[in-house]
Amino acid sequence: MNWEELARQRERAAITADTGLKALWSRIQSTLWPELDVILGTMAVDKVGRLTFTLSNMQKAQRVGLRVSAVWKRTLGRIVIDYLVRAFRNLLGLNAKYIQVAAPTATVRAEDRIMKRLLSFYGYKDGEVIPGTLFDALNPDKGLSAEISRKVQAAIASKMPLEQFRAQFRGEFINPQSGFMSRYYRRFTNDLFMQFDRGVGLAYAEELGLKHAIYAGTMKDNTRDFCEARLNRVYTREAIASWNRQNWKGKHRDVPVELACGGYNCRHTLNYISPQLAEVVSKTRGGIDTYKDITSP
Questions:
Q1: In this structure, are residues 203 and 114 in contact, taking their beta carbons and an 8 Å threshold?
Q2: CB-based contacts of 34: which residues, under 8 Å, 6+ apart?
Q3: Which of 11, 64, 197, 217 could form a disulfide with 268 if both were Cys (CB 3.0 to 4.6 A apart)?
Q4: 178: pLDDT strictly greater than 90
Q5: Residue 65 CB: number of other CB atoms within 10 A?
Q6: Is residue 70 a contact partner of residue 141, using CB atoms and an 8 Å limit?
Q7: Which string of b and e fits 134-161 if b means at least 16 CB within 10 Å?
Q8: How far is CA 165 from CA 38, 147, 287, in A?
Q9: Rounded CA separation 192/199 (Å)
Q10: What is the pTM of this model?
Q11: Phi and psi for 269 in degrees, rounded to 5?
């Protein structure tokens, strides 16, 4: 494969990993639901089947959330972390293949060093989750369990019919797109694999002293003006860093452009290349550090 094909392979792998993670959340929701429903089925109701506001019911509402945490600690947490680490390792391997072609004079083999750096950044070291990191934030104890308990408590407070609540809550909990876990974890893992791929590329650039990157990807109907102006052109890392001082619609305020590119849900990336390749590619793409005029009709 040439360097462009290898770059596209990385992009496909990141998208596939994201799709797989969403499917994993969906399976986890379906696996968890029967355990939660068992608790709901024991809750006290009045003569017409409405939930009653009792200490026992409120305690059971808390138990529903705690059960999620317990199952996570018992099995599900390790399943999720293992999935993330495998996907990260796959992306690292594809980046290693890419860099061998895009920067063929590079001789440094830095895969292990880069993987340790990035896994530590995301919160995983020596097989353990590091407190205060993204991986740690996935623990239901950090918020999801309490959110689930509050949902049950609200149903108790409103004296909702138990069977109606069980049916409604089940639909909300296991929905593949908007279920409790899918929705809750989207805030932490949306764009995760694209950002990881960009992070690997940046780490290689730092390790190997690469100074140029192509702002790569395809045009779509919803492509941001920021991305369209840069798409498939060659830039120095200094120019790329300067974009962090700019503002545009959809910019990620908490993640640097080197990792977020155009912002939320951006599928473009930065393909770091050797100086020789930068010189060749830039000749047919408007030079280095130039921008497409998107104001012209």
A1: yes
A2: none
A3: 217
A4: no
A5: 22
A6: no
A7: bbebbbbeeebbbebbebbbebbeeebb
A8: 13, 16, 62
A9: 10
A10: 0.90
A11: -145, 175
